[in-house]
């Protein structure tokens, strides 16, 4: 592959990682490559996100990963690792190994616990068990040997070392017993076979759960059709999506997905954009309107002109944003990484201490070996490595499906501490599409001339209020003359030469600053502002000739959004550059009691800093244009975006479709994701804290240690997947509709639950039966009275 001379970041697919220790090793290997700025590995997604400070060949990155003992390749949309395929391979291995492992475990228990032998021949029985356990040890255990060797070559042992070492000790000792003919000595083939069986089973369910956790990315990519109908020379041509170029005209029939981003040039239709925005109601699209690739054309056929294809399309940008969020690390992960870095060596040392402690102080070397194997097996840090990334993957994926883009994992921790949410008025609480509602001429000026001159002066400006004045003039059928010497006075108004006359349009404050006497106009201005209008004064050649009243409709769900934020315990403040009376009118309609009017962009920034200086944690929500400084300064910046602009860089959280009601839902989702991470870490750390001393004291059979280790990983994955079942509850708590199917966590995890239960039964039933035989519970006196097995 060619050198990545222009790329600033590369995402690699990394396979072969088995625990949190592997994550640190891959990151360290990538960080050592010259030109690499940062390397962040996601264990759950099996990806590495590498940012580059200088051009670095992708091959150099791959080589570094391979040298560390893993496999890597560039991640492309068409060649993404499929966890389902990996799980299928593991399942085949598991089934094949079970043919040998299950009879090996049962026969080993029969011999060790009850003293039963095939045909009454201990020698034959032992050799049969050895023959059954050997393919399990070297077949099912191969992946652990391979991983252990790779990690040891790098001087950084991982969980594979623990599994390989523990099972090899049990198997090797037992094989020596058989070969040496010491049939009066206990063997541990049941330990080696059952531990490998259980841990491999845990791996299988881990891989299937990873597939479920990464479903959001695959679901997004699945939205893009494979072909498009291009109109060339008056004919329709079906071409692969990769062949579509900017400027091509495409025909989209009813029911088809729109292939790429574009602008409608012909036809009318309703488009379902729910996959990007979470909005269940289709939106009308007509000539001139933008459409997004991957959305569904519901009704009439439309012709669009492609404006963005490939990596520049909104869908691909959205996928990249979600991937970056899923690959990021929460600050709490730093603690996990530090623990994982020393965890395996410490466990090996603890196992050695356990073995020699039992041998030297209790004189029981066999018990020491059993306890040491239990320590090695039970301490595998799989759950620790999965705790954070799986929750982030599920949480950010759920958010993406609801039109909520959480930029990175660090945002999750900051949302937990939020005290205040500051809301911009225009475009956040209001529609952001002001309209001229009042035209008030003064003196000899008539309405049409007033509107025409004002529109001419405003025409060079892109400000929403300016566009509203121009649109009003056009809708009134007026001819808008050209303007010259245009000058915009930031956040106050404009002035320009129109038909040789100086026309000024702006706020009353601007006219007061310019020295106009607007006192006589105050009553009329007050009436308009009290009705919620934004007032623009118009002057021609130094004389005020009229007033314009502009009205921006409050969003229908704005009041509900404010109430939802209050239910989350947050203080809500509104900021606006509008006048005090208009601000008061909007605040009253949406239920906000605290607001500031006449605030300029720099003053919004100062207000956020003022709140932070009081020790408060602040979220700022705005449309990401003139609110950008305040969004960047806030602890959590919430940008309201349209569906075609998914890459607002200033927001920590981006809400597609500009839906203000999603603010509370985004905060609630972030908090719930963080709660899940903490639950997972408590479970993963707690499991090791409790299990390790129990194993070292010889109170935990290695077989059950293997089962517990597998169960811990499955439980962490299941807890993360539980987030997906909360989508409806989170949406409804914010007062939002939720139409997607709700998953049941028990149904989603019924496979692992049933399999683990059956595996436990496989162990417990033979254990009870053979123990009963050994101790005469079934009336079989003398069954094996002189036999004391390792389980008994």
UniProtKB/TrEMBL annotation:
Q: Which UniProt keywords apply?
A: ATP-binding, Cell membrane, Copper, Copper transport, Ion transport, Membrane, Metal-binding, Nucleotide-binding, Translocase, Transmembrane, Transmembrane helix, Transport
> What GO cellular component term, any one, is given?
plasma membrane
Please indicate if the UniProt record lists Cytoplasm as a keyword.
Answer: no
Q: Where in the cell is it found?
A: Cell membrane
Query: Looking at its record, which EC class is this enzyme?
Result: translocase
Q: Name one GO molecular function term.
A: P-type divalent copper transporter activity
Please name the SUPFAM superfamilies in this protein's record: Calcium ATPase, transduction domain A (SSF81653), Calcium ATPase, transmembrane domain M (SSF81665), HAD-like (SSF56784), HMA, heavy metal-associated domain (SSF55008)
EC assignment: the record states 7.2.2.8
Q: What domain of life does the native source organism fall in? A: Bacteria
Q: How does it sit in the membrane?
A: Multi-pass membrane protein
TM ranges are 94-118, 124-145, 339-361, 373-398, 680-697, 703-721, 753-773
Query: HMA domain spans which residues?
Result: 8-73
Main location class = membrane
GO biological-process terms attached to the record: copper ion homeostasis
Question: Is Acetylation found in the keyword set?
Answer: no
InterPro entries, alphabetized: ATPase_P-typ_cyto_dom_N, ATPase_P-typ_P_site, ATPase_P-typ_TM_dom_sf, ATPase_P-typ_transduc_dom_A_sf, ATPase_P-type_domA, HAD-like_sf, HAD_sf, Heavy-metal-associated_CS
| Protein family according to the UniProt entry | Belongs to the cation transport ATPase (P-type) (TC 3.A.3) family. Type IB subfamily.
- Please report the name of this protein according to its UniProt entry: P-type Cu(+) transporter
């Amino acid at each position: 592959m060619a050198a990545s001379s222009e790329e600033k970041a590369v995402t690699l697919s990394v396979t072969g990682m088995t625990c949190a220790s592997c994550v640190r090793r891959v990151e360290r290997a990538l960080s050592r490559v010259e030109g690499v700025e940062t390397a962040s590995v996601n264990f759950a997604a099996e990806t590495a996100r590498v940012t580059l400070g200088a051009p670095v060949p992708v091959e150099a990155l791959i080589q570094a990963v391979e040298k560390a003992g893993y496999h890597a390749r560039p991640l492309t949309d068409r060649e993404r690792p499929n966890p389902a395929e990996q799980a299928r391979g593991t399942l085949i291995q598991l089934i094949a190994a079970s043919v040998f492992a299950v009879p090996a475990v049962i026969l080993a228990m029969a011999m060790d616990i009850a003293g039963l032998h095939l045909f009454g021949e201990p020698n034959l029985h032992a050799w049969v068990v050895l023959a059954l356990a050997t393919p399990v040890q070297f077949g099912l255990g191969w992946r652990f040997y391979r991983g252990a060797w790779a990690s040891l070559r790098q001087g950084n042992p991982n969980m594979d070392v623990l599994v390989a070492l523990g099972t090899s000790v049990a198997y090797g000792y037992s094989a020596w017993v058989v070969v040496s003919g010491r049939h009066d000595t206990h063997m541990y083939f049941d330990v080696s076979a059952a531990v490998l069986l259980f841990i491999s089973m845990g791996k299988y369910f881990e891989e299937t759960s990873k597939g479920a956790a990464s479903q959001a990315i695959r679901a997004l990519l699945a939205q893009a059709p494979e072909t498009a109908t291009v109109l060339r020379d008056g004919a329709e041509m079906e071409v692969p999506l990769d062949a579509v170029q900017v400027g091509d005209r495409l025909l989209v029939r009813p029911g088809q997905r729109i292939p790429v981003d574009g602008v409608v040039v012909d036809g009318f239709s309703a488009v379902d954009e729910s996959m990007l925005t979470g909005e269940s109601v289709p939106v009308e699209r007509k000539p001139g309107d933008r459409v997004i690739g991957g959305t569904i054309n519901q009704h009439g056929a439309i012709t669009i002109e492609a404006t963005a294809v490939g990596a520049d399309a909104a869908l691909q940008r959205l996928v990249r944003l979600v991937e970056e969020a899923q690959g990021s690390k929460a600050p709490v992960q730093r603690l996990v990484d530090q623990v994982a870095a020393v965890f395996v060596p410490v466990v090996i040392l603890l196992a050695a201490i356990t073995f020699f402690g039992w041998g030297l102080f209790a004189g029981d070397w066999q018990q020491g070996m059993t306890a040491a194997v239990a320590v090695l097996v039970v301490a595998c840090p799989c759950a620790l490595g999965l705790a954070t990334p799986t929750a982030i993957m599920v949480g950010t994926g759920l958010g993406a499906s609801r039109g909520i883009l959480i930029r990175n994992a660090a945002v999750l921790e900051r949302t937990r501490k939020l005290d205040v949410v500051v809301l911009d008025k225009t475009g956040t609480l209001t529609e952001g599409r002001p309209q001229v509602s009042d035209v008030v001429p003064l003196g000899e000026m008539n309405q049409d001339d007033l509107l025409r001159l004002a529109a001419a002066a405003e025409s060079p400006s892109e400000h929403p209020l300016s566009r509203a004045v121009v649109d009003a003039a056009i809708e009134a059928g007026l001819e808008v003359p050209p303007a010259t010497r245009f000058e915009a006075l930031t956040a106050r108004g404009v002035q320009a030469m129109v038909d040789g006359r100086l026309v000024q349009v702006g706020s009353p404050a601007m006219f007061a600053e310019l020295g106009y006497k607007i006192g006589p106009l105050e009553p009329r201005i007050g009436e308009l502002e009290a009705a919620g209008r934004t007032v623009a004064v118009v002057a021609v050649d130094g004389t005020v000739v009229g007033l314009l009243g502009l009205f921006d409709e409050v969003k229908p769900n704005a009041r509900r959004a404010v109430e939802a934020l209050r239910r989350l315990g947050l203080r809500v403040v509104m900021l606006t550059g509008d006048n005090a009376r208009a601000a008061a009118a909007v605040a009253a309609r949406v239920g906000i009691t605290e607001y500031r009017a006449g605030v300029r962009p720099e003053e919004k920034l100062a207000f956020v800093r003022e709140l932070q200086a009081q020790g408060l944690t602040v979220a700022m929500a705005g449309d990401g244009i003139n609110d950008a400084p305040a969004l960047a300064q806030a602890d959590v910046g919430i940008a309201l975006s349209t569906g075609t602009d998914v890459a607002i860089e200033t927001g920590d959280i981006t809400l597609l479709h500009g839906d203000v009601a999603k603010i509370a839902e985004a905060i609630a989702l972030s908090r719930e994701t963080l709660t899940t991470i903490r639950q997972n870490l408590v479970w993963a750390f707690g499991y090791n804290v409790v299990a390790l001393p129990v194993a070292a004291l010889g109170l935990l059979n290695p077989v059950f240690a293997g089962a517990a280790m597998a169960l811990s990983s499955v439980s962490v994955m299941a807890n993360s997947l539980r987030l997906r079942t909360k989508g409806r509850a989170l949406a409804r708590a914010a007062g939002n509709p939720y139409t997607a199917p709700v998953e049941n966590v028990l149904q989603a995890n019924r496979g692992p639950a049933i399999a683990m239960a059956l595996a436990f039964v496989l162990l417990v039933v033979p254990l009870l039966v053979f123990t009963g035989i050994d101790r005469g519970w079934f009336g079989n006196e003398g069954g094996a009275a002189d036999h004391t097995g390792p389980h008994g």
